[in-house]
Fold these 4 entries.
Entry 1:
Amino acid sequence: MKLKAPSTRGWIYAIVAGGIVIALPYVLPMGDAHHGWWDKIPGWWVLFGALGCLAIVVFAKTLGHLFLQKPEDWYD
Amino acid sequence: MTERHAILRQRWLLVLILALPLAALLLSADYKAGAEDEHGVPPTVQDAHHEAAAQSAHGDEHGARAEEHGAHGREVAPLLTPTTIPSGILPPALILVLGAILVPFVPRAVRSFLAVALPALTLWYIWTQVPDGCLVVWRFLNYDLHVLRADRLSLIFGKIFTLVGAIAGIYAWHNGERRQQVAALLYNAGAVGVTFSGDYFTLYAFWELMAISSTLLIWARRRPESARAGGRYILVHLAGGAVLLGGILLQYHHTGSFLIERFAPGSGGMAAICILIGFCLNAAVPPLGAWLPDAYPRATITGAIFCSALTTKTAVYVLLRVFPGWEVLAIVGSIMAVYGVVYAVLANDIRELLSYHIISQVGYMVAGCGIGTIMGVNGSTAHAVCHILYKALLFMGAGAVIQTTGFEKLTDLGGFWKRQKWVFFLFMVGAFSISGVPIWNGFTSKSMVVAGAGEAHMTWPFMLLSLASVGTFLSIALKLAYATWMGKDRGIQPEKAPRNMLIAMGIAAFLCTLLGLKPSLLYRDLPYAVHWNPFTIPHLVEAIQILLFTFFTFYVLIPKFVPHRTISIDTDVFYRKPARLARKVFVTAVGAFFDRTDVLGHRVADRVSGALRDPTDWIPGWPRRVPSDDPGYDEDRARMPLALPLGLTLLALAVLSVLLLLS
């Protein structure tokens, strides 16, 4: 399966939804519920979701290619 | 339109992620009620009885107030109900054990009914007849066995174990296989027995009952790979049980008591370490947890539901009982949460993927136990309850797919969600629950554990647990659902799922939603008073941001999620690979040696007996015997006829009988 660009409608959905979600902390009363330094970084949880997902996939796939993944009959 | 674009056309997915959390905010009665505390968090559960119980625990003269502190200066949750009320009631596990004895002798329809009714009866019994703080002591040999010790922690675990037993019984209604039904009831009895055990003797008996009965549910699938996986499973669990038993005996040697008591962090020496290893093995803590994704995907479709709910969660229960505040558990649990999702990204078998997510989710519970504060213990308990419900739902969905399509690998599945809408819809409820999507129960419990880590200033556990929630949404709600039902249409025409399966899934989905919308129903039964509201704006915004941008990244990376026909090696490689060599050395070679020795021995004996048959043959010049018509020795001819000893025996019996009658 090759990577292809999303449809125009898909991009519009994604940009609108992403923009709304990024803007949420600035329009809603967030209080001062800080866990730590990271809460002071604008868009921290947006970055965390996106980069965390990317990191998990890259980490898992790398380990898989290096030594974790074996043919199905490897134990036989 | 490629397959991956189809996912963006499912507008309901975006609506769910965006709109439902806001709906939850509006719907939540908990959010509206009550004034906010000094942290800006409105109290959710202020149950007076609950407060009183917690307060009594704080001030009890028996030292109920724990004086233990972790390395971060956090205060470990106090002991629960230190006073016990002697009682004459029966242990709840007895209902299930007696039922398991009865079940094989009744007709199939009654068996299916009992498989639901007995756990339901036990649930009712625990709910209404077992009060908080009651104690039942049975005398056995020279020991006082505390066969029933109930407090808030054991009660909530006992309730959820029996509830999921009843739901799984409905799911398995059509099955009717005697062996599985008995094994499932005994397994449930083992979990309930462990939960209410007050001493290690009782705990160990039920612990091993769980190991044996769950093995039967794996073997019951009657496939070669199930037989092998079941063999490995029971060997690993017996080894873990042996370590646990060693710890119990050491503890008895040091204290002279079998009673289950909490170990203060870092105390207890070798006894505590052995007991901890035994518990951690059942909790599937890496590197001791490879048995889980090895065995559960090979269990029967219905048996896997029980497996997913019971073994690891009883281990979490005993960890919460004995080892709260052990910081090593917070670290190990956090790593475990990420470990599971990394393997889940690679998995191809749908139930193996779910099994790795058991490890990941149990990681939250183990971490909550390691955090050890009231928030940590409450969060861990709440997450165990929610996890049992949504994980059972996910395994039921996966089981329905296997039952109706005959396939269990992602490489064989895809593109049939419109032909299996109900199963897909109910599965997605479980998927959103485990992912912590607001409105479902995973959000209300997982957030407690993560917040507990934040409150305890444990930065790395906080980050790793947050990262694991990204991986959970990615691999279950997105990867698994996409690759199983959406993706490339392989022309699969699934059969209709049995109605009882859908009913059981519907009940589990309803409970996941109910506890997600109204978490106070869960919070009020937690071990300690709860001052936590998940439906605050910062929490909801955080959840929405994480979920939506995980979804976007998944969308971009969809080609990376094309499944491959591979397996992923885990720590079980250290005993599975050498197993072949060990078998050759210790079984095949030893057997061959005995076989050769046997043959050689017989050959030598044959030669010697032949040579000694007539020693005169050795004397040169001695006249040889003249061959005659004598056929030689024939054991049938030489043996005393059978009739003679039989006749003599009968005669002696008759004489004895006459003598006895005359006397």
Entry 2:
Amino acid sequence: MPRWGMVIDLDKCFACQSCTVACRMENNTPVAGPDQTARGRAILWNEVLPFIEGEYPKVHVQLIPRPCQMCDNPPCIHVCPVKATYKTDEGIILVDYKRCIGCRFCAVACPYQVRYFNWYVPEWPAALKAHLNPDPEVQPRPRGVIEKCTFCIQRLRKAREKAEAEGRPFTATDYVPACVQTCTGHARYFGDLDDPNSLVHQLAHSPRAFRLLEEMGTQPKVYYLKQG
Amino acid sequence: MDRTHRESDLERTVLGPLRKTSMQFWLVIAVLGGLVLMGAVLLGRQWTTGLGVTGLKRPIYWGVYISNFVFFIGISHAGTLISAILRVTQAEWRRPITRIAEAITFFALILGALQLWIDLGRPDRILFLFFFGRFQSPLLWDVTCVTLYLLSSTLYLYLPMIPDLARLRDRMTDAPRWRRRIYTVMAAGWHGSHEQHRRLERGISIMAVLIIPIAVSVHTVVSWIFGMTMQPMWHSTILGPYFVVGAIFSGIAMLFIFMTIVRRAWHLERWIKAKQYDYLGILLLVMSAFWGYFTLSEYLTTGYSSLINEVQVLLAKIQGEYAPWFCAMVFCNLILPFAILIRRKGRTPTGAFIVAVGVAIGMWIERYTIIAPSLTRPALMARFAIYTPTFTEVGLTIASLALFALLFLLFFKLFPAISVWEVEEGQAVAAARQKAEELLRQGQLEPTLPTP
């Protein structure tokens, strides 16, 4: 069974935000508008975070693209009172939108802030609404529940179905999330962390590899390759 | 009890407000009712449009509502815990104030649970907590403990009311039918026999002991919904006892507030006396000192370290945007009580009332400054966030306080605010003791120790 993981090479990322946009189109996250976005209400399953270090004239901006870290020891799941969020056998953390009661405990517990809340009924401008992803798995979420990055779980299902239809075994390279597929600088790698021959496995063991807030013991499955 | 019974002073004063209602009372009820109505409208709007009407945002997912939840659960410790401890230690002065304390607990718990419901994104799914509850989640610990506490404090409020309910059944013969029915049913056939008294006392004693660990557990698990996460300044072992101390502290303050209001409005000055204010004032001072000690331990330990995530939350509180809140909290919880209550002359109803209002405000601020600053400065955040509560949140807080007061006042329009039979029992005990002392002094009684 694969253990899906991602590696992001910060040397190659130039913060073009195409991952953020591809994610939105693939997963139907609503448009919050400039007003609500300024109030911290935007839903961005993938976000490029600018960390500004130092002060003028010695300023360094570290840009970190941040999907869900898909922790192997996820704090969000420990605290959910109704089992609305769970980890699949392949290590992907999902939310059951029909079960979630909207208490936001998981969002408070997640040290990476990857969880987003539907403050209102999701909305799109008419032009965008006509182009929503029709996949039933990414149907717009109802008001009042939590949603988050799923590593494009719908793409995994489609890849499996496709392999079956073509009468060949499914392999880990058949499936990538939208952010990985679209990445302009080829900075993102995706695959099975448990397969010693996979690129992600090898990169995750590179001396440049690190994970966010590793000291918290969350054991994320998203690795970063240090810049410079 | 026979019909020719002549009412004692105590009965007359205590039952008086149940018989006659002044215009002022209805005016107060109308104002409170209006505020509750405003809250209902605001809540209706929140339920139809979404939690977007609040000032909450990412990453400040919890704010005023959760502060209110902790605050109300905190003041619920007024009653039951204080009354139980005083009962177990047989403090005689408790007698006239236990009923008020226990009623505060009951209504504060209902209001506390209501805050959690208001905070939910999907209030229609509240019952999922019972259908699909996961005991690994600290939130379910809260649901369990609060439910248990509500059930046991309802029983603990009801049991000592039974003899008084029987008295109401027998005396309030001119009351409307529905009220007499309530009294009859709730009195549960009490006729004051020796056996009934023995059983009642036994029941009350058991409940008084049982309720102390339950009350402690409730506020401990309330703190653990924060303590079990890894957010800076939440993930601390001190949080459990700190919250329990804060709960008892704010509980005593709430008891002071309501006991002074009832004493004044129901004319109970002869029964709730200087002694109650004096002793309870000392208890409040002790809790204030405890609270100060815990606060110092928590903040000094954090401040002395160089853990950047923790320190930046601390700085937000002592010199950042939360500094005014922090200063107000220290003033209300530490400086004000010591300034007024340290001298015996300060422990008067007026002095105690002023301090109690201060402590109630201070403890709300304490809850708020524990919850909000940590969330504005999480460990991984490119920029700090700022949280400003909206009118909806403030309005619902006011409405909740109004509903709390409304339920409390209506309750004591229907039931006596002082436990008549317990005060009578106290009078009998005091009289017997006085008589024994007199006999001793006259040498007619041998001072002997009870044989083991």
Entry 3:
Amino acid sequence: MQWQPISRRSFLKIAAVTAVGVSATFYGHRFMSAPRNALHVTPYGNFLVLEESHAHTLHAFAEAVLPRGGKYPTPQQAQVLQRLDEELYFISQPIAKDVKLVLHVLEWMPVMYAKFGRFSRLSLEQRLNFLNGTKNTRSKTVRAVINNCRMLCFNMYYGHESSWSAIGYDGPFAKHLPEQLSEQRQLYAALTTPQQEQSQ
Amino acid sequence: MNNIFEARDITQDQTLTTQVCVIGTGCGGATVAKKLTDHGLDVIMLDQGGYYPAQRMDQRELNMAGKISAERNFASSHDGGNLLLYGNNVGGASVHYWADSYRTPVEKLEQWAQEYHITGHSMADLLPAFEELEANLHIHAATDPYFNRMNQLLRKGSETLGWRGHRVPQARKNCVKSGHCMQGCLYDAKQSQMVTHIPQALAQGARLYANAQAQQLVMEGDKVKCLSVAMIDAATNRPNGIKLTINADAYVLAAGGFSSAYFLMQQGLKKQLPQLGKHFSMNPSVMVHGIYDEEIILWRNIPAAWGIDHFWQRQYRNGQYQEGGYLLMPNQIQPAMFAATLPLYGVEHQQVMEQLPNIGGTISWIDDVEDELGEIRIKRDGSREVYYPYGPTTKAVLKDSIKKQAELQFAVGAKQLIIAGHQGITLNSMDDLTRLENLTVSAGGLMLASPHPGGGCRMGLNATDSVVNSDHQVHGFHNLYVADSSVFPTSSALDPSLTIMAFSHIAAKCVAANI
């Protein structure tokens, strides 16, 4: 049996090109060349890695897959996008680029399935139906893209304290132990907070 | 202690001289350093990760992953389907491991001696090391108070089904049952390298440099002349421009199973050492979550007090794989990582998460199939790729381990099982096992995690079959050694930490004899 030693990045790139042709190449170039400390002001917050297009896709995904209503925080309240952006800022650049490519492929993936719209422009119900419809896909790319988006989204959401009471998790064993923010967390907060807010 | 240096302490380029420079401070590096200081040698320990003792811990999943886990747990295999979990901090993976502490199975040691010509690492050779380590790290079989409900169920299930099990040996002292082993032990109860070999080496004069990334070995003939090290700014996680140059008589590479072969490849040694990166194993693990009528609280007490070794060895009939090839254990993950493994969306997902206190689960640790091992590669852009093929026998073993997990959990009262992965396969009874026929293993079809890397710098006879000799010496180099799981010829099958430490006793002896 021959296994295909194709790298994760390679097949994501191939998928991106297949999905959206010239558009993906154009956006892919933008992802690769974005300066590291540029602040992207988006409707969901100020980000260092995620651009507005990624933020729309990720927010649409989070809305579709996460619990809603009642005792559950919204993706914004649980800071899903903000925390993912922070994580991406500090990990190796090849991995951060992979994640951005994954979001880009997800955005255009419905087109591959003959849906007439990008992921972030589908209705909530259409997004859920689309995701559930991919569960038994034979495509490695589709599986890898959705699997990774799901893992990242849930990990950020349930890593936030606001989601814990809804699921019966009593938090850290050491009660009342304050967060010990690393140097990296402190830096990220400083870099994404507008100067006037910092001075107040 | 005044012999611990972080990036903030180093304000200009420095040249340091020592007898032995150890790269990496996990189970391999810290143990080697401690043993070398026992021999009276001067040692410098380097770790590219940060120094996070208990007072810098906070038991939050994401915060702690950012401090002690490599790539904040975002690293994956070549197809994005397997999470690679390892340390990037002083103490390495021992800071986030489960504290399971097994002696290497005799069968493995015999196989490595007979098939891969390894000498000096038999059970008789390693026994003094095991005994010393077990005393030093307070290793003992888990006792009843440390069985959470899932461990109790696993034991009951193994007894009901007649499957052989055992109390898992634990490296702990005064454990308070917090359940935060994977976030680092706030109580210094887990006997990680941070509370054992590292302070012991420091007390005997070793120096520790955290945020210090080994970059280039400068070679002269068959000797490493010096090592260039970049200091990593703790805030930006990038080199800050300050360099250390280390002049040592010997260099011990102990960067861990995911990193040591990659480091040697970065030195341009692949042509000279063609086996570099090959024969890579990682104990892929597959999880089956179970929903129970009773409360389980999977996130408290110790992760694995009971293990089932009944299926440890693969069984074949007429050359055809039948069953086995893994160890079964209870699972323990905190809610964020648990949710990340769930294949459900929206309302379905919400319904499961709301039952979190009643959710238990099991995990199987696969003993990698020898002729289906993976490879560490270096990509054109210089980054690392972990390639793992999931050959036909490996796939069969994975599926069999899911069947056994299902049988076990249904036997002890699970109402519904969920297989971690993309496909959303749920089982309501053993009759549903036919659904596994549609299970896809690669690229996220099945969610896999691998915290036990091995190989890539395989031990053996010469450069045509391996990377290091039985003295842990890199072929062709007089003063360069490897002391971590990357020297294993094949998977160690069980949690490798104690094997790594025992092997490092041997490595330290060889280094000291050659100084």
Entry 4:
Amino acid sequence: MAAEFRNIRENLLLALDTLRTHKFRSFLTILGVLIGTTTVIGVASIITGLNSQLVQAAEQYGSRTIWIYKFEIGFVFRLTREQRMRKPLKYEDAVAIRDFCPDVERVSVEIFHQGLPPVTKYKGQDMVNAQLFGATPEDFSLNNVTFVSGRPYTTVEDLHRRNVAVIGADVATTLFQNENPIDKDITVGGNSFKIIGVLGKRLAFLGDNGDDRNIYIPYWTFRKIYPAARENLILAMAYPNRMTEAMNEITDVLRRMRRVKPDQPNDFGMATAASVIGQFHQITGTVALALVVLSSIGLLVGGIGVMNIMLVSVTERTREIGVRKAIGARRQDITWQFLLEAMTLTGAGGLMGILMGYLLSFTIRTLVPSLPSSVPLWSVFIGFLVSIGIGLFFGMWPAMKASRLDPIVALRHE
Amino acid sequence: MESQTVASQLRESPAPPDNIIILAQDLWKIYDMGAIKVDALCGLSFSIRRGEYVAIMGPSGSGKSTLMNLIGCLDTPTHGEYWLNGRLVSQLTDDELAYIRNKEIGFVFQTFNLLPRATALHNVELPLIYNGTPPAERLARAEEALRMVDLGDRIHHKPNELSGGQRQRVAIARALVNHPSIILADEPTGNLDSTTGEEIMALFDSLHQSGNTIVLVTHEHDIAAHAHRVIHIRDGRVDRDEPLE
């Protein structure tokens, strides 16, 4: 077996001893590596936490549901002029999808106000941020909601334009602290509705889920009260494993319904849980890339610091190198001694960085509960390996320099 | 010069008999300083038998240090042959020389040259680490070597917790631990007061008594007087080679 492996334990102990002897100097040297690793682990933990939260939040709506709206749904930051000019989707579009798309199992329609929502009142309590939706009864199953009490309204109630409402979890807790909301009457924008169902709380992404503040009334009731409302959102559920086909069929039907010319792009958008997740992954991927670039600069600077201190160490210990050579250390023994020392140095920095990263992740989780973070194992491995790699790379030259010292000259060094 | 180098390589003589531990034949060491060439050793020859106690003396600039470096395998001659314990070492590579230094030579330096942050025990263990002796055996042999120099009760002390004489004893234990062919001591008492120096020389005497070959490099006659033979070096040549009573 090669001597460098035989001596690893001795060299490691030696390196740790050097670290102990020059505690402060070592700490300053590895600060760059430490900060670099901490950043990588910290940001990786936030991205991982956000990702898992988003996946859960998106998938609770069901993986077979397709949202169709006049705009693209998801992480959209600015609308173009063409998008702002788009005409809203119509109830008839939903009917057409239901009738002409063989891979679509069910369809529902939601209609809502643009602008400030109407004020919701129950006895003395006001709620200004509740959002009123008119939705067909199928909407509850398409949105994959749960009922904590009561029931959804029926198609009969929808077609008879009854004043009934199903409220989200936050509406219930805001307006009815100690009461059972079922069969109570609330007023929304001056119109009275009887509550027949209360929905369970939904999983949130970053803070709370806006859907918990929704009030659902039958679609045709909404149309009767607000005849000018035009903003329809269509939900379509594909048969299992028929997502792509269903989306192609919907595209064909809508292009025909909205008279889109063959050479024109779609003037409507579609989203699924998967597409929203994919969009988010793209964003976090970009953030991760920027992070890698930034932290590599930090690690590079840290590496140069390590090289510098190793060169100092080689000079300081020239005589020791001479002694070691005189009593039988070969070049590779000396090379490995200093390489291992450099790797121990940066490895220690990496370990501290990992620890700091965990601490950072824990602090974020504790201080901002809505911002989830969990340290992914891969980032720990990569952080540690990269730290050691920095030591290997930047320790190479000083170690070679040490190993090439002439023992006679080194022994005479003061 | 060219032809001489080739000739000396072609004339490689057979290995010396077993009782000759060192055989130096026509050793040249020429330092090339660019414009001028400095001859530090000019065709120096001698031999040392197993179990001998030899002092090498000479004024500064005589080539004494150069010769010591060659004997200690820290350097190779420009030409000439150097046999150590039946092996021709004058043409070995760096790593092979390191192996020879580890196995065949026990260095004792004027300035002790111990590792300051290591204990006496670890300092003595060091040569064994470099030849891959297993830890348990290493420990036992290092302890034994330290007991041999009467430092059995000081094994966990660091050099700065030991007196000068004790440090030199640790260095001697380190030189002994691999059972080398020769112990090569370079002014071993140069940094010690005369009383301690005498103690160290007494230790060398007893090591010689127990069969070790010792080569002392010194310029002090008192020290050289401990040896049984003195080789005087002058201007890179053997000036006188005389036995002592």
